[in-house]
Amino acid sequence: MKAKDAMQGLTPLEEAQKTVLDATPILGLEKLSILDALGRVLGEDIVVERDNPPWDNSAMDGFAVRWEDIRQEQPIQKPVTLTVIEDVPAGKMPTKTVGPGQAIRIMTGAPIPKGADTVLKVEDTEHTPDSVRVFKAEPRGSNIRPQGEDVKKGERIIAKGTTIRPGETGMLAILAKSFVFVYQRPRVAILSTGDELADLDERFSEEKIINSNSYGIAAAVQEAGGIPFLLGIARDNPSALKEKISHGLTADILVLSGGVSMGDYDFTKAVFRDLGAEMNFWKLAIRPGQPLAFGKIQGKLAFGLPGNPVSSMVTFEQLVRPAMLKMTGHRSYGRPVVQAEFQEKFSKRTDRRHFLRGVLTREDGTFKVRTTGDQGSGILTSMVKANCLIDVPVEVERLNPGDTVSVQLLSDAAWAGYAKQSHTGPHRLSCC
User: Fold this and answer.
1) Which domain holds residue 122?
2) What is the rounded CA–CA span in Å between residue 290 and residue 275?
3) What is the CATH number of the domain that holds 176?
4) Model-level pTM?
5) 1 part of a folded domain
6) Any residues with CB less than 8 A from the CB of 290 and at least 6 apart, and which?
7) Which residues is 414 bridged to in the sheet?
8) Chain centroid to CA 431: how far?
9) What is the pLDDT of residues 339-368, one digit of tens each?
């Protein structure tokens, strides 16, 4: 797609997302211990090298017996007495074979001895060190975990592209895999622009505003699995901006906030061009977040996000986060989405897609959503209160109470909770 000049209109979000993802490479692999790999995306197929369990084993503390010795059509009227010939605790292999009229005392997890085909629960017997009296018949094969019940040799048990959770970590340990290959984490350089900004460690001045964008974006980068590093603040002159951007080109992604509008002191466009940038678009058909630049500088992804804090966070969600997820080997790149019943009235022009900050609840089996209140792009409390973004399509002019809307959940924890309550569960953004 050719670069769009600001006067040539707004780029639809779907087109922008496709452009970004098409330009995004998948990073290489690194080898980590399984404890360090939690939350990372697996870069190899995990194939089972031996059955688990490796042999038939007991599911109970009890006695391994031959079913023929305890078989009866009716409940046992007269107890069957068997001779105990060996004790087998977990971690020990049996040395004897169970013959007619014999039993082996066995603990949970211990291998089933030869000759035995059933395990009796200890509580269903009376026993001495040398004998066991059986009062209850069991079906053949009771209380035995068969070899390979969990996984079988040669089976692909965890596929490449899987996000490693505690369950996968436990399985890797069972398979004696102490290290695995995972996709690398993207390094994201973060730069804020503007003479009006003061950083956290600067002396407070009534003429300045605090640089919140760098820290909000850095947190979003960490939450998406990346490694942020802060470039600080670039003052409003081309040479300072060019120097700072050049420092950020050692990263996989450059994210700049501010300076992408059309003001007299918005130098980003000119500096990008001086650095040989190949730009794809400069404006999006969304609100908040219309002024947004994307392209490549010296082969690195470069995003110019709006300076308003809410606009910066919303556009990060829609474009930067999907790119990061693709880089780290994920197979889907969007936030979980549910359908909800809108609780308010809302109207807009039919020229942009809106993302309202919202609060999603579940009442009487129905998802309901309301806005957080004032939706100004500088009101950061709207993001603090929100657990979702309400996605209002371009063509929708107004919403009324009871209308159905699509809602993007802002955390996977919220997704997990709502998925348990929903009949259909949330789905991932189809565009990503």
Assistant:
1) 57-145
2) 23
3) 3.90.105.10
4) 0.83
5) no
6) 10, 283, 284, 306, 311, 352
7) none
8) 18
9) 999 999 999 999 999 999 999 999 988 999
